[in-house]
Every structure is written in structure tokens, then in C-alpha cells.
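Exercise: predict the fold of this chain.
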Amino acid sequence: MIHVDVTIMGQPYKLACKADEERALREAANLLDKKMSAIRDAGKIKGNDRIAVMAALGMAAEFLASKTANGGPSMLEVQEKLGAMHKVLDNALTPQENLF
């Protein structure tokens, strides 16, 4: 495991991941930062937790809308992908909990 420093909405996070997952983790953090910052800057939603939920919902909707009519992922495949992403995020965020 390696430690990766990222910043989301101005808040620094030290995350842990496998060396071969670093690039994907950095890209995911960057995308999340952009989505959450855009929601915050729009000024309609207050509170980081609400901003995070709205960003997650928007990203999930974009993901589901991106499937094609021919051969797009089934809901089971989407659920499996989301489960895998949750596992990666849990592994990355668990060491963060020990800092507080």
C-alpha cells in the first residue's frame, strides 16, 4: 500500500491504495473535487455532506446514462462495478479515519 495526498474542496486527504491504483485514485479525486466544487460554487446547496451526496448522485446518473443501447452494462454489472468502487474507496479512506 502507498499513501496518496489529494485535495477535495480545499480539504487535504491522505489516502491509501495499491501502487497500481494511484493514477485512478488521483483521477477520481480530481473528478470528485471538480463536481463538488461546482455544486458548492453554484450556492444552492449548503453542507459538505449534502454536496457530496449530490455529486455522487450526479456522477452515478452520468455513468448510467453513458451506457449504449447495444450491449450496455446490466444493472447487475453496474452494481458490481459500484461495489468494487466502494471497496477501493473503503480501503483508501479507512487509514484516514485513524488520523482523527
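Check your answer against the key: The radius of gyration is 15 Å.
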